[in-house]
């Protein structure tokens, strides 16, 4: 059996972040054209603005495409933004849903709390306004089942 792995859904591919990046660059280009027409010395500023917009768009695309959560027999692995974390099942004390809001629709992510009292957010699943994940609840249930199985296998049953 393969380890359950969860990724941020994009309707079959990275369509949403790519579309966002393209809109960002198109908006930047339009702004630069307008800026260049009104300011003859704005060429260097325009190039810098395009570079910054492309860098921000590329970063956002990479963050979403690379985010994942994987449940193995012994640990939970996740990548959120640029950091990859590993946490053995027996060091996890709670797995909860963390609501946050960006825009009109509330968003949800999964937060893991360790036995040491630290916590971190999983890279996936995430359910929000821009990226809707209809499988969020089933992914959360699967992660919690893997956690409980991992704790039982480690001999540290405390739930």
Give helix and strand order, one letter per element, not per position.
EHHEEEEEEH
State the secondary-structure class: alpha+beta
The tally of structural domains comes to 2
What is the assembly state of the chains in this entry? single chain
* Proportion of beta-strand residues: 25-35%
Which descriptors apply to this entry?
four-stranded antiparallel beta sheet; PH-domain like; 7 strands; three-stranded antiparallel beta sheet; 2 domains; single chain; alpha+beta; 42% helix; 30% strand; 159 residues
List the helices and strands and how they pair.
Elements: E1 5-7, H1 15-38, H2 43-66, E2 68-71, E3 75-80, E4 83-88, E5 92-101, E6 106-114, E7 119-127, H3 136-154
Antiparallel strand pairs: 1-2, 2-3, 3-4, 5-6, 6-7
Description of the molecule:
- The protein is of the alpha+beta class.
- The chain has two domains: 15-64; 68-154, PH-domain like (Roll), CATH 2.30.29.
- Helices cover 42% and strands 30% of the residues.
- It has three helices and seven strands; from the N terminus they run βααββββββα.
- It has helices at residues 15-38, 43-66, 136-154, and strands spanning 5-7, 68-71, 75-80, 83-88, 92-101, 106-114, 119-127.
- It has a four-stranded antiparallel beta sheet. Strands 5-6-7 form a three-stranded antiparallel beta sheet, covered by helices on one side.
- Strand 2 and strand 3 form a beta hairpin.
- Helix 1 packs antiparallel against helix 2.
- It is elongated, with a radius of gyration of 20 Å.
């Amino acid at each position: 059996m393969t380890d359950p792995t969860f990724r941020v859904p994009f309707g079959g591919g990275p369509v949403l972040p790519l579309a966002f990046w393209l809109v960002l660059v198109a908006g930047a280009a339009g702004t630069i054209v307008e800026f260049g027409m009104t300011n003859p010395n704005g060429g260097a500023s325009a190039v810098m603005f395009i570079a910054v917009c492309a860098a921000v768009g590329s970063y956002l695309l990479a963050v979403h495409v690379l985010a994942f959560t994987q449940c193995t027999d012994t640990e939970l692995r996740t990548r959120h933004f640029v950091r990859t974390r590993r946490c053995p099942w027996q060091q996890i004390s709670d797995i909860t849903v963390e609501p946050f809001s960006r825009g009109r629709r509330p968003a949800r992510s999964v937060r893991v709390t360790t036995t040491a009292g630290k916590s971190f957010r999983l890279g996936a699943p995430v359910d929000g306004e821009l990226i809707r994940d209809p499988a969020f609840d089933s992914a959360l249930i699967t992660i919690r089942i893997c956690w409980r199985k991992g704790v039982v296998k480690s001999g540290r049953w405390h739930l």
